[in-house]
Structure formats: structure tokens, C-alpha cells
Design goal:
Distance between the termini: 32 Å
Strand content: 15-25%
Structural class: alpha/beta
Strand order of the largest sheet: 5-2-1-12-11-10-9-6
Order of helices and strands: EHEEEHEHHEEHEHEHEHEHEEEHH
Length: 311
């Protein structure tokens, strides 16, 4: 693993997994997403991971105008790395998901390393009624949803990142996705060093267990040696146990309302910044590591930097 003394904290502000019924604090409008991203940056996040939603209904959206507005307004207010998603949502085509790379030319964007079943339907068991008509069918339809990222898709998408100077953060939802990344690295489709994101706890991917995280780290070490760094997403209540484990092991962490709505058991987070502040505190108190600034992350990851970003 590539050594970096400081810890990188990413905040995933809204995502496309949680529906508005689940929390009144989930950011929906551009104003809300921008404000949450700015506050997260002030709290210590060097990267903000961005999805957008329909401002009227909260439904996940691929609208490029919304992405451009949100990214531009964040960057006008804070020098933070704005990382748009290419994962999108279950209601989007591959073309809709990846258009942010050629259109916005960000410093960094997420890039998913393989296909999985992606089931959100268990959320239905917790709610009798939903705030918006789209929420129940959106969740129910994931019983049959395959999050598609085939080898052919990756062969087509990854060169787009290189063409536009955007670093792909490689989202790995299971151990096989690490082997997919190694295959693409061996074929010179991916360029080292790699930055991996272990996404743990999605229904259809690897479970959010400490033993599984250890296995992911050991597998990455065997496959990539000193040509990778990693961060961890822990879904739901496992957000802080897994991210603290990752930082203790020399890795990095992602927190935010995309992955977890609760600050602690039974208490909804009112702001993404609250989740970032908790991660900053745990990082310093439990691991002794300091928090990396956006410019320090740019240097470590080799990003093209603020002056060359198109939006």
C-alpha cells in the first residue's frame, strides 16, 4: 500500500440509495446539496462525493445542469475536490451515469469495478407509508436490478477518464472487483497508482464485517503491492466501525448521508458535517493521524488540480 501519513476523509452528501421518507435531513435541492458539501469541507472533508436529485421530488437524477450547478457553486465557495458519481442510480442508463466525465472534466470521479445485484428493497420493511409516489416502486424494482458494469463497459468508460484528465476512484463492492481492477491494470487500461474504494454492506455485495475488510486489504496488498491506496465505505451502522478500522490500517474513510443517516444509534444526523466531525474526532483520538487538506490529497493522488478544472 502507498503510504500517506495523513487521513483522507470523503463526504458522500446525498447519494441515490436513501429515499426522502427515511430522513427529513437528506439533502435534495441544489441549495441543500451545496450547503451540505461546504459545511462538510469546513468540518474536514477534502473530497465531496456528489449525486444530484430532482429538486421537487428528491428522486435521483442524471441531470447535467444540476451536476454543473452544484459542482460550480461548491468550488466557488471552497477549494475542495468535487467528485461526481458515475454510479448514478438504478433509474439511469450507463450513458447517463458517465456523462459527467466528458462534460464536467472533474479532477476525480467514481468508477465502478464490476456488476452486482443491488438490492434496496429491504428498506420497504421499515416503512408503511412513503412521502413521494416514486419511492416505493423505486425500492421494489431493485429486487430485479443488476448494477451493470461489464468488462465491455469498463473498456469504454475508463479511457474517457484518461482523455479528460479525471482520476477514477475504483469502487469495489466485492473481492472479485479487485481482480477486475488487476485485470484492467495488467492490460494497461488502468494506470497506476490506483485509489480503491471498498464499498461494504450493500445488499448484493460484500458484507460490512471487520473480517471482510481485512480480507479486502490483504487481497489488494497481494494484487497491487505499493501501487494502490484505499478508502472504505461502511453502510448503515457499520460506517464508523469500518472507517476507523480502515484508518487504523493506513487507509482512508468515506462518511456521509449517502451511506448512513445516523450519527449514533437512534439519532438521525442533521448535517453531513456532523458525520465528518465525528470521523475527524475518531481519526485523531483513536489512530493519532491528522486530516489531509485538499491540496495534500491532490499531491498524493496526482490530481490535475484546481486551476485546470473545467467547471
Amino acid at each position: 500500500m502507498r503510504s500517506f501519513e495523513k487521513a483522507i476523509i470523503t463526504c458522500a452528501v446525498t447519494g441515490s440509495i436513501h429515499v426522502p421518507t427515511m430522513s427529513p435531513h437528506l439533502p435534495i435541492t441544489p441549495d441543500e446539496i451545496v450547503e451540505e458539501a461546504v459545511e462538510a469541507a469546513d468540518a474536514g472533508a477534502s473530497i465531496v462525493h456528489v449525486h444530484v436529485r430532482d429538486p421537487e421530488t428528491g428522486e435521483p437524477s442524471p441531470d447535467l445542469d444540476l451536476f454543473r450547478e452544484v459542482a460550480t457553486r461548491i468550488r466557488q465557495r471552497r477549494d475542495v475536490i468535487v467528485q461526481p458519481t458515475t454510479g448514478g442510480g438504478s433509474n439511469m442508463t450507463l450513458e447517463e451515469r458517465v456523462q459527467v466525465v466528458p462534460e464536467l472534466e472533474p479532477e476525480m470521479a467514481s468508477c465502478n469495478m464490476g456488476s452486482i445485484n443491488f438490492g434496496l428493497y429491504p428498506i420497504l420493511e421499515a416503512y408503511d407509508e412513503f412521502e413521494y409516489d416514486w419511492e416505493r416502486p423505486f425500492l421494489e424494482n431493485t429486487r430485479e436490478f443488476v448494477f451493470r458494469n461489464t468488462f465491455a463497459d469498463l473498456e469504454r468508460i475508463i479511457p474517457l477518464f484518461a482523455e479528460h484528465g479525471t482520476m477514477p476512484e475504483l469502487e469495489c463492492y466485492d473481492v472479485g472487483h479487485l481482480h477486475n481492477a488487476k485485470h484492467l491494470l495488467d492490460r494497461d487500461i488502468l494506470d497506476p497508482p490506483l485509489h480503491l474504494q471498498f464499498v461494504m454492506g450493500i445488499h448484493g455485495g460484500i458484507g460490512a464485517d471487520p473480517e471482510h475488510l481485512t480480507h479486502m486489504i490483504r487481497t489488494a496488498e497481494r494484487l497491487f503491492g505499493d501501487r494502490y491506496s484505499f478508502s472504505v465505505v461502511g453502510a448503515g451502522r457499520m460506517q464508523f466501525p469500518l472507517t476507523t478500522q480502515a484508518i487504523s490500517a493506513g487507509g482512508h474513510a468515506r462518511v456521509g448521508m449517502e451511506d448512513n443517516l445516523y450519527l449514533r444509534k437512534g439519532e438521525l444526523a442533521e448535517r453531513n458535517a456532523d458525520l465528518v466531525e465525528k470521523m475527524v474526532h475518531q481519526t485523531r483520538e483513536l489512530t493519532g493521524r491528522e486530516i489531509a487538506s485538499p491540496d495534500e490529497v491532490r499531491e498524493f493522488l496526482g490530481l490535475k488540480g484546481a486551476s485546470n478544472v473545467a467547471f
